Amino acid sequence: MTRSRFDSLAPVDCHPLRGVIFDMDGVLTDTIEFHYQTWQRLADEEGIPFSRQANEALRGLSRRDSLLRILQGRVLPEATIQELLERKNRYFRSFIETMTADYLLPGVQVFLKDLREAGIKTAVASASQNVYIVIEKLGIASDIDVITNVYDVDRPKPAPDVFLYAAQQLGLGPEDCVVFEDAESGVEAARAAQMRVIGLGDAAQVGAADWVLPGLEGVRWHHIQAKLNPGV
Ligand code: G6P
Ligand code: MG
Question: Which prosthetic group or cofactor does it need (predicted)?
Answer without folding.
Answer: Mg(2+)
